[in-house]
């Protein structure tokens, strides 16, 4: 055998350039591993995800990417483009699981599911009584009955396999469509050209148009319409909120809270999921809910979420007695400001504080 490449002992021979490239790649992997380990160790224990939540998030990403991939593949396969396989490994390598917007949305949705699952099955004051939603579906007022039935139908559709379990905000869904399409295109490499680009871009546009049409029939949107139809008087607000939570109907509770506080449902979700509940307590106080009702809400949430400290929550609820309601309403006014404005101000405050 000629001098140069060593005789292979199974597999392909490598030359000196291959060896140098592999050594450089190994060094790069070692640096990446060190950086990832440092980030992992730097996470405070209080902020670390439990294994159940982490696993649920990874499964959710796999489901979302798989659903988008299947949708786009239906447009690509008939055109006969070869070399396109699963895109998730490539997307993980590109840092999809570290995308802040995606992580934030998935974590919130998983926390909501965990919260609903942790609620007692017989939390209602009168267990034999039909749930609030079922009673509304039989209400004599057509606008209430229709809105309640629409929510029941939306929930049924959301549970069906073809509907998919994870529904993302349109902007995030659109971004993921482009990521998956780009990963499919990269896999095809030089075997495909502009023709594949055009097919993928058309498939993304079609999928996004479908998502736009379906958005108004999603559970959150339908629940908001029902909350607007209920529009409880201030003195009835506590009772209706409590009934929705006792029924383990978190989407309706969120919609009612968002409607009463006049905030987007995503902000109501943030208030609900904060285990310390300080902001939620201030908003409920601003809505002039009785302290007894606030306490019951906190007990239900604490029973469902092991991260919550009930004793600390009780102490905070007691503080509401000495808090001027005007101060709580000032806080609610801040919550109502656009999220982009609040985020920009928080970033600038961080710079000015240095």
Short account of what is shown:
By secondary structure, the chain is mainly alpha-helical. Helices cover 70% and strands 0% of the residues. 25% of the residues are buried.
Task: Describe the protein in words.
The chain is an all-alpha fold. It has 17 helices and no strands. The chain has helices at 16-42, 51-76, 88-93, 100-118, 132-137, 142-159, 170-188, 194-215, 219-230, 234-246, 250-261, 265-273, 278-286, 291-304, 310-319, 325-335, 339-352. The protein starts with 15 loop residues before the first helix and ends with a helix.
Secondary structure topology:
Elements: H1 16-42, H2 51-76, H3 88-93, H4 100-118, H5 132-137, H6 142-159, H7 170-188, H8 194-215, H9 219-230, H10 234-246, H11 250-261, H12 265-273, H13 278-286, H14 291-304, H15 310-319, H16 325-335, H17 339-352
Helix pairs in contact: 2-4, 2-7, 2-8, 6-9, 7-8, 9-11, 10-11, 10-14, 11-12, 13-16, 14-15
